[in-house]
């Protein structure tokens, strides 16, 4: 149901648009974040690597504590194999957004909106990259003055250095065998795809300017804090949560924001009366295939090393994806009489989503269970549940990513292998992280969307929507 602003008429005179207004707003937001976050602790000039600490003889003096913030390391501390794998993983994860997600979504919209859908993923990639360099990485992956948000010590990548003559370079405490630049860029690709996933819920009806505002603010206000909670050792949920590669940080986070977007914008015009059939499922199949391949960087890359855990995560990811695709396909075949191309692609993505939090913590047997469960549950959430509640989650970002992420997060707590992970799981503790993310992301997304709606407006006009976003937002069309 359309949620109209309370003072729509009065707000019109306050509306502004264009890149200048966007730049001013983002600058003000960045300044506020800088002032409120507090400075990060100053990194020590030197700190022992994890490998060196592990190799110390038992009779030697007690090893220094593991580093808790970025630090300077020697060239000799860097592992070339780990670095090569992480460079590869970074490229694979970037490929998941452009071209993977861009094509996956573009194939499912109508012809008049294909270019606009491709543009969303491409523009988000550029916007998030710059914001990540300015402040996002520092807020997410450095210790701050609170357990809820990082500091500003790495703003503009300050202190992230490569010193040729001194044979030193900066290293993150979260990836001690690779250069910090590689770790920061690997995490940048996660930050890029997360807001891009949200676009699937409001496809074919949001103004491009509003989309840019929303994604930039959402990255800093929602994504960076949640990433800090879960993945930074000083984050308030880090010690209790099992989220190997982003089931909560990426998929639940983006999926529930997608639902908030769908509710705020309302349904597409003509939904239920006009054909909303995908224009070109060939693009969707290619996009899904690129997502599948790129996801090996997403999950196996999250080992931050070229080692046995990366290999196990690789295997679990592939097996779970196949199981989920088959589970969705057979469920649809049984209920609707025919297995669809869109269905098997959606099932594969559901499996990729669900195995993400578990990929470094479970073996192949558990991966099959997680994948099969996600395939069936996400099928019903994207069909029967969506129809029952009447929201227009256009391309099922909520039904696949949020629901699949919840399935994966909870099953991770139930099926985690201590032999593989070295940790024990708890469904209740996983539920704590899931709930915190759902509440924070949904509430903050609604607030951000409401503020944008009261200033520049969220949705294109009825005439623009009928004509299509390609021509009305970008002045281009596919002939």
Any overview of this molecule?
This protein has 479 residues and is mainly α. It is built from 17 helices and 3 strands. The radius of gyration is 22 Å and the shape is globular. A 3-stranded antiparallel β-sheet has the order 1-3-2. Helix 4 (80-106) packs antiparallel against helix 9 (281-299). The longest helix has 29 residues, at 308-336.
Average pLDDT confidence is 89
What is the 3D shape?
globular
Number of helices: 17
Largest sheet features: 3 strands, antiparallel
Strand fraction: under 5%
Low-pLDDT ranges: 1-17, 33-63
Report the C-alpha radius of gyration, rounded. 22 Å
In helices, the fraction of residues equals 55-70%
The neighbouring-strand order within the major sheet is 1-3-2
Quaternary structure type: single chain
Helix and strand content put the structural class at mainly alpha
Give the ordered list of helices and strands: HHHEHHEEHHHHHHHHHHHH
User: What separation lies between the terminal Cα atoms?
Assistant: 34 Å
Q: Strand tally, please?
A: 3
């Amino acid at each position: 149901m359309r949620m109209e602003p309370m003072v729509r008429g009065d707000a019109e005179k306050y509306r502004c648009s264009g890149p200048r207004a966007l730049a001013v707003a983002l600058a003000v937001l960045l300044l506020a974040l800088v002032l409120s976050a507090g400075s990060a602790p100053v990194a020590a000039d030197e700190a022992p690597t994890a490998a060196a600490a592990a190799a110390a003889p038992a009779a030697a003096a007690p090893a220094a504590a593991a580093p808790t913030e970025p630090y300077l390391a020697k060239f000799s501390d860097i592992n070339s194999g780990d670095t090569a794998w992480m460079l590869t993983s970074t490229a694979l994860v970037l490929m998941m957004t452009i071209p993977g997600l861009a094509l996956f979504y573009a194939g499912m919209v109508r012809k008049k909106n294909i270019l606009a859908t491709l543009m969303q993923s491409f523009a988000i990639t550029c916007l998030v990259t710059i914001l990540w360099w300015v402040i996002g990485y520092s807020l997410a992956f450095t210790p701050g003055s609170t357990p809820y948000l990082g500091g500003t010590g790495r703003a503009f990548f300050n202190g992230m250095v490569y010193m040729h003559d001194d044979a030193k370079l900066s290293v993150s405490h979260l990836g001690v065998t690779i250069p910090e630049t590689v770790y920061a860029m690997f995490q940048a690709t996660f930050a890029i795809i997360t807001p891009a996933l949200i676009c699937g819920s409001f496809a074919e009806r949001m103004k491009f300017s509003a989309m840019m505002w929303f994604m930039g603010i959402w990255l800093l206000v929602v994504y960076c804090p949640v990433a800090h909670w879960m993945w930074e050792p000083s984050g308030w949920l880090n010690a209790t949560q099992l989220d190997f590669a982003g089931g909560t940080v990426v998929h639940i986070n983006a999926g529930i924001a997608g639902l908030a977007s769908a509710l705020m914008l309302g349904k597409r015009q003509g939904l239920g009366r006009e054909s909303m059939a995908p224009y070109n499922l060939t693009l969707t199949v290619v996009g899904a295939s690129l997502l599948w391949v790129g996801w090996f960087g997403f999950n196996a890359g999250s080992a931050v090393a070229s080692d046995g855990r990366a290999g196990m995560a690789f295997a679990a990811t592939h097996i779970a994806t196949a199981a989920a695709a088959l589970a969705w396909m057979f469920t649809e075949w049984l209920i609707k009489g025919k297995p669809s191309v869109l269905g098997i692609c959606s099932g594969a993505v559901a499996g990729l989503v669900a195995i993400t939090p578990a990929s470094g913590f479970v073996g192949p047997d558990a991966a099959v269970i997680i994948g099969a469960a996600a395939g069936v549950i996400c099928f019903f959430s994207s069909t029967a549940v969506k129809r029952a509640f009447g929201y227009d989650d256009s391309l099922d970002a909520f039904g696949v990513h949020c629901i699949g992420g919840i399935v994966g997060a909870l099953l991770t707590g139930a099926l985690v292998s201590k032999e593989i992970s070295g940790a024990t799981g708890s469904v209740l503790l996983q539920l704590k992280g899931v709930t915190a993310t759902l509440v924070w992301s949904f509430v903050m997304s609604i607030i951000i969307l409401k503020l944008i709606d009261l200033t520049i407006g969220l949705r294109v006009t009825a005439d623009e929507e009928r004509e299509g976003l390609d021509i009305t937002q970008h002045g281009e069309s596919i002939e």
